[in-house]
Structures are given as structure tokens and as C-alpha cells.
Write a structure and sequence with these properties.
Two copies of one chain form a homodimer. Chain A is an all-alpha fold. The first copy, chain A, folds into two domains: about 45 residues, Arc Repressor Mutant, subunit A (Orthogonal Bundle), CATH 1.10.10; about 140 residues, Tetracycline Repressor, domain 2 (Orthogonal Bundle), CATH 1.10.357.10. Chain A has ten helices and no strands. The longest helix of chain A has 25 residues. Chain A binds a DNA duplex through helix 1 and helix 3.
Chain lengths: ~200, ~200
DNA sequence: TCGTAGCTTTACCAATTGGTCAAAAAGTGA
DNA sequence: TCACTTTTTGACCAATTGGTAAAGCTACGA
């Protein structure tokens, strides 16, 4: 069988599982959990529905697997923010990394947004266990930078929220952005956000 | 019948239609369009399912009605931004009005976010017809203010995006915000955003 | 008070959808 | 080639869900 209890996954298993997960990311991010159907996922993956269920116990397990994988990717840019670096550079780089993620991983951003929007029914434990400690740690670092006079004094928590909000906006509200803008927003957004956080954080 | 073609809606019609719409706003904003069921809406409204369908032609019509009503409310704070007022005051007041809306109308915010997140299948026409002209008009006003030297030069379009993103974040990502913060974020968010846009826009 | 229009409910459908099962097909090592 | 395991499929099922039909109830003006 294809349960995780056995040892080595075969090459076919590796290929099909990632085929399924990629298709599911498409479908879940486009239609939400309830809006997505196993048939859609199966078709997008090029496999039959029962075959999907040979590799995953059910729809929810696929969703949870995606969410788990996502969490690591999602936190990575914040993890990289280094207490020993130059504060302004570290923060502005963080903003750019998050903005790049919105451009490069819009499906992941929307999957995450959809999950939080509905009250994070399958991700609250992750938020508490993984995100919260990291958030507190990095807020403390930012606060320390401010106390040293390297940055202007602002509320670090809302600073981080604003970075998340402004950068993810370009993935999550892409439809709206594209309706209102003619050209690709990435470069002009990068310049704007750099300018905004530079002026806010200049000591 | 209860179709819109006849004349005066009775008092019962008024009451039940708003009962249904309020219940539907609860359910749609909490679970998304596909995630919401007529049974849930019916129960939340205290009416039977066929009775719901006596007042609305179907699930989609309820959703569209909500979206249409929402659009006006949603654009109102931006409409109020006045070209003849003091630029900095007008913009900072706009930020506060949007932030207040996130606190006072979180269901509406989430309904809107969910619709855009899924590609605005039922709202693209509205975005083009209502939002786009208003957006262009207000961006032109902001640009004029900057040209007069009343505000620092930034990209007005991304400025508006950032206001939307940062303020709606507190409604749409409420679950995440509440997981990371202990106290109510509204007042501290208001101070942070005031500080951020003041420093960004100071000429 | 009675007729009628407006409102509500009970019973029911048909389509969708997550999931099952047993058998067939395809690999795989000896 | 043969035995055996892994993978794939077609047929099927039960629950959910959007929606309908028709009968019953209620309010209200003449």
C-alpha cells in the first residue's frame, strides 16, 4: 500500500504524490477547500479519482499535506532576518523577499489566505506552534534594534503585519490589482514599499 | 410573488429579506460561496429553506445581492476623500475610516476578500464599472497634491493599495492577528498606521 | 365574514461529490 | 517465464445539497 508506515516510497509514488499535490494546489488555491472537488484535482493531475485516493486517505489529507509543506516555505523569509545584520537592510530585504514570494508563489499565498480567512480551521495549531514563537522572537529583535537607535520607534508587531499585508496583497488581490493597473505591478510595488519602509524606519 | 417586478414590498418582505441577507452574510463570510449551504443560511435566518427560495431565486442571487450592496459601502470612505481638503488630513482620515470599517464590518470585509481571492467571478464587472473610475479619479487627486508639493512623491496607486492591504488585514486575517496578539489591535494599529503614512507622506 | 393574495411548510428530486471495492493491469525480482 | 506486489480502473454507494411542487396557513381589504 501507499501508507507512510512502510519504508522507501517508490519512484512512481514520488512522482504521483507530487503530481497530485501540485494539481491540488492549483485547485484549492483557485476555489478554496469546499469549492475544490476530487474530480477537479484528479483531472488536473491526469489521474483517476480512485487513484488519487490510493495515494491520499482523503480530500482533507491532501489539503493538510499542502498546508504543512506551505508553513515552512512561508516562514522562511522571516527566519532569514538576522539579528546581527544591519537593521534597515535586514528589514528592507525581508520586504523584498516577501514581495518576491507573492510573485513567484501566488498559489501558495492564496491557499494560505483562504485558510486564514475562514478561521484557519486546519492551521491554528501550526500558527500557535510555529508562527507565534518566530513572530515573538523577531519582534524582540526589531524592538532591540529600535532601542539601540538603529531604527525609528514603531510598534514591531504592526510593522510586521503591515509587511505581510502589503506584500501578500499583490498575490491575494491579484484580480483587483490587475483590474486597476495596466502594467505589471511588481517593480513599481518594490520601489514603493522600499520608499515607504525606508521613510518609516529611518532613525 | 416576491419578484422585484411588482411594486411595494410588504413589511414581511422587508423583514425577511433583510433577515436572509444578514444570515447569508454570516455564512458566506465564514465559509465562502461554495462552503456555504442554503440550509445553514436558512437556520441562521430562522426560516425554512423553501421559504428562503421564496424570497430569492437561488443561492447565487443571494450572494450577488450581498455583493451589490457591499460595493457602495465599500467605496464610500474613498468617495469621501475630498480634493479641496488638506491633503495629509484627507489621507490620514481615509486610513482611519478604512481601519474603522475593518473593525465594524469584518463580515463585509471577508466577503469581499473571499470574492477577490477566487478571481472575483461575480464582481469583475463591478470592479471595472465602479471601482476603476473612482480609483483613477482619486489617484489623480493624490498625484495633484504631490505635484503641488503638499505631499511627498510616491506612486499614488501603490499608496492606495497599501492602505487597503494594511487596514483590511485586521479583518481578513483576524484569526492570525488574534493568535499573535494578546490585546485588541485596533488602537495600536491606528497609531502605527498614522505614524507610517505621516512619515511616508510628509513633504 | 369571506375571498384572495401573500406567505410558509411538507415531501420530494436530481445532481454532485467524497469515498469504497474488487478486479484488472502493470511492474518487478528470481 | 512465473509468482507476487504495486498500481490503476470501472462500477458503485450514501450523504449532501440546490432546488421544486403543491398543499396549507395567514393577513387583510371589501
Amino acid at each position: 500500500m501507499a501508507d507512510g508506515t512502510s519504508k522507501k516510497p517508490s519512484r512512481i509514488q514520488m512522482r504521483n504524490r507530487s503530481l497530485i499535490l501540485d494539481a491540488a494546489l492549483d485547485v484549492f488555491s483557485a476555489h478554496g477547500y469546499r469549492g475544490a472537488t476530487l474530480d477537479q484535482i484528479a483531472e488536473a493531475a491526469g489521474l483517476s479519482k480512485p487513484n488519487i485516493l490510493y495515494y491520499f486517505a482523503g480530500k482533507e489529507e491532501i489539503h493538510v499535506t499542502l498546508l504543512n509543506q506551505l508553513m515552512e516555505t512561508w516562514l522562511d523569509p522571516l527566519v532569514e532576518m538576522d539579528a546581527s545584520g544591519d537593521p534597515m537592510t535586514e528589514l528592507l530585504d525581508y520586504v523584498q523577499r516577501k514581495l518576491d514570494m507573492s510573485r513567484d508563489l501566488p498559489r501558495e499565498s492564496r491557499l494560505f489566505a483562504g485558510e486564514i480567512l475562514q478561521g484557519a480551521p486546519r492551521m491554528l495549531p501550526h500558527l500557535r506552534a510555529d508562527l507565534k514563537p518566530l513572530f515573538d522572537e523577531k519582534c524582540a529583535i526589531i524592538q532591540a534594534w529600535m532601542n539601540e537607535g538603529k531604527l525609528a520607534q514603531v510598534d514591531p508587531r504592526h510593522l510586521v503585519f503591515s509587511i505581510w499585508a502589503t506584500t501578500q496583497h499583490y498575490a491575494d488581490f491579484d484580480t483587483q490589482v490587475r483590474t486597476l493597473l495596466d502594467d505589471d505591478p511588481h517593480d513599481s510595488a518594490a520601489r514603493f514599499l522600499d520608499q515607504m519602509y525606508r521613510s518609516l524606519l529611518a532613525p
